[in-house]
Write a structure and sequence with these properties.
Layout: E1 7-12, H1 20-33, E2 38-43, H2 45-52, H3 59-72, E3 80-84, H4 90-99, H5 104-108, H6 111-119, H7 128-142, E4 148-151, H8 156-172, E5 182-185, H9 213-221, H10 242-250, H11 253-264, H12 270-297, H13 300-328
Parallel strand pairs: 1-2, 2-3, 4-5
Length: 330
Amino acid sequence: MTAIRKRVLSGMQPSGLMHLGNYLGALENWKALQEQYDCYFFVADWHALSTNYADTSRIRMFVRDMLIDWLAGGIDPERATIFIQSRIPEHAILHLLLSMMAPVSWLERNPTYKEKQEEIKEKDLTTYGFLGYPVLQAADILLYKPDFVPVGKDQLPHLELTRELARRFNDIYKTSVFPEPKEHLTKFPKVIGTDGRKMSKSYHNTINLSDTEPAVRQKLKTMVTDPARVRRTDPGNPDLCPVYEFHKIYSPQGTQDQINKDCRTAAIGCIDCKKLVADRLVEQLTPIWDIRAKLTQDSSQVDEIVDAGSKRAATVAKATLQEVNEAMKI
């Protein structure tokens, strides 16, 4: 008999073009999980409204581009259920029901609530939707009763709120509808952007999966290096160089060791160092670009995958909501 796989659920907000930080931090992990677990991966387009409600003009485009990037990056619809959050109205319904019993104090203590307000000052985030988005996140998770949710340590408070809401629901209605999902702790690598800071859309320092080869090479060519290397003959320190961080990700160990040695003795210049890592990165991205090009030219395959995935997800979501309605006697 085939053993029943444990279930994993994860989502991603379509807030812009996917970059190497997203790929290395999330998609690489998802690819590994889909080999072992029953995976549900969804595009959290309703979550995008929490910060972009005033301008929704590009959300549909971001959703489509994200799905293409997922498929090109190795997410397999034969091994994972791929769907869009807004296609499943049960997410909104369970969000509503859970919000009726979610204490405001639980939401106000969410560390992201005030951090984001400080970080994104150009937008009005003093909204009910932004305060309550962790409840929607909890509904996203609990609908599918996953065994595990892949998170980094900084996301543990969000998952704990989900567990608290599950316990509160079960306690109020004397039921066991919602099992408490466990964390699948994942080390999300800090990918450095072209300006030396963490790669982020808000910093405009990203290398995107949708970039062309010339664009990738140009971005790496202008990437900051060890500030002490003013002249070609100046010795450098790879430990302080963002370009060397890319070598540690993409270059074989022998190349890393040689670059480390040559940089410290000024035997290699920054231009040649950047070209070497650009060659490696292009080699890694070429298969992704090939699949992206095919899916972009003919997106009917993407539609079919999302339609099938949304139907599978809807079956699970409807069954859970039926249990919820029976427990609440509504």
